[in-house]
Every structure is written in structure tokens, then in C-alpha cells.
Specification:
single chain; 91 residues; mainly alpha; rod-shaped
């Protein structure tokens, strides 16, 4: 593997992990948030209106991908500096 390929492996792993987290986390968080809001609205004299944070839902995916890639930049750079042949030979 070249140095660039080593860096991209780390970045790709971070992106895939973020996408999987978004696929499961956003629907579960939305369902749990609505459930908790309904319970809170039932205990207080409020008219229940399901809150929809459209901009938050639209921005959470790009923000999560950017943060995961920023967090993967340093380990990716470090992996790119390693000599892969020596590491594989030592395993």
C-alpha cells in the first residue's frame, strides 16, 4: 500500500462508522425524543405538537461526516508514515 492509500483506509473506516451510526442513531433518536416529549406534554397542561427540527435533521449527516473525518486525519497521517511491509512482516 502507498502512503496515500494508508491514509484513505483510516478515513474510509471513519466515514463508514459515521454513516452506520447515522443510519441507526437518527431514527432511534427521533423516536425516543418524540416519546419523551409526548410523556412530558401529557404531564403538563400543554397542547401536544410533535416538534420537527428539519434543519437539525438535514445538517446532522454532513456534520457527523466532517467531524469523523477530522478525527481520522491525525491517525491517517500517522498510518501513512508507517512502513507497511515492516509492520506486516512483524505480525
Amino acid at each position: 500500500m502507498t502512503r496515500g492509500q494508508c491514509r484513505w483506509v483510516v478515513v474510509t473506516q471513519a466515514s463508514v462508522l459515521a454513516v452506520i451510526g447515522l443510519i441507526f442513531g437518527v431514527p432511534l433518536g427521533l423516536a425516543l425524543g418524540r416519546s419523551v416529549w409526548r410523556v412530558a406534554a401529557d404531564y403538563t397542561p400543554l397542547y401536544y405538537v410533535a416538534p420537527v427540527a428539519l434543519w437539525a435533521l438535514l445538517l446532522v449527516a454532513p456534520a457527523a461526516l466532517v467531524v469523523s473525518n477530522l478525527l481520522a486525519a491525525w491517525p491517517g497521517r500517522r498510518a501513512g508514515r508507517l512502513r507497511i511491509a515492516n509492520i506486516l512482516r512483524s505480525e
